[in-house]
Structure formats: C-alpha cells, structure tokens
Amino acid sequence: MHTPPKTIQAGMFIMPVHDPAKPPAQCYDEDLELIVRCEELGLHEAWIGEHHSSTVENIVMPEIFIARALGETKTIRLGPAPACLNQHHPAHVAGRLAFLDHLSKGRLTGELHSALQPPSRRAGYSLCRLMRRALWRRHTQWASQ
After folding, report:
1. Could you give the CA distance from residue 117 to residue 57 in angstroms, rounded to a whole number?
2. 2-11, 60-69, 122-131: range with lowest mean pLDDT
3. Nearest to 35 by CA among 16, 8, 51
C-alpha cells in the first residue's frame, strides 16, 4: 500500500519588534500586514507574542490583535505565544481563548507559559522562582478542572 508523502506545515512567530519611535498604530498595522502576507504565502499558522514592559515589543493583548487579524484572513491559524498565566487569572485566559476560538471558527491555536521576560522583571512584575512555580501549579490545576 502506497502512503502519500506528508507535507510540512510552516508557521511564523511574531515577536513584534519595532522602532520605539514609530507610532504604535503603525506597528500594529505592519504586524497585521505580515500575517496577511503569511497567509498569502501558504503558511499554516502565526503566533503572536505578549509583552507588557518592552519598548520595542508592544502587543500587550495578543487575543485582541488576533481578533483583528481574523477579519483580514481566512485560513491561517492564529494563537497567542504564550498566554502568560502568571500575569492573568486562568479563568480570564480560559474565557478569552474559548470566546476567540468560537469567533475564529476553529482557527485558534494556543500556548500557556509561566515565565517573564527580563524587562518584565525590571518593570515590577518580578516574582521569585518558588512563587512563580506555585502560581503555575495552581493556575494549571484550576484550568484543568
């Protein structure tokens, strides 16, 4: 029996690095244009990073950005990379992602994470390693119930 060859599905991770002198709206438009171009080129998925304290990475709510991108695309899967459970209550994360999954008609993909970027630590989001681990365990246990 002949098995057809499997195809590779490529994707894009958008770590939205921009010149801090640019207006944020222009940066968001450029990121949106990149996702549309990825779909035109046949990429399977695009992941959008979440950053709260960086001057060059300025998407603080990837879910809202994804909702905007859903209206500009038809097939590409979209997802936050990651949804940071140490910065959001797991019920809020679950609610936002479930709602977005319905809006996307199944095109949402996702990732959960507990880490903070070094600039986030400087901005006052610092938690000791033991506290981050405890929060991660609590949030993932809560979300899986």
Report:
1. 11
2. 122-131
3. 16
Q: Which residues of 90-125 are buried (b: 16+ CB within 10 A; e: fewer)?
A: beebeebbeebeeebeebbbbebebebbeebeeeee
Distance CA 89, CA 97 (A): 12
Length of the chain in terms of residues written? 145
Q: Which domains does the chain have, with CATH numbers?
A: 13-143 (3.20.20.30)
pLDDT of 141 reads 64
SS (H, E, C) 21-82: CCCHHHHHHHHHHHHHHHHHCCCCEEEECCCCCCCCECCCCHHHHHHHHHCCCCCCEEEECC
Tell me the per-residue pLDDT of 115-126, one tens digit each, with 9 for 90 and over. Answer: 555 444 444 444
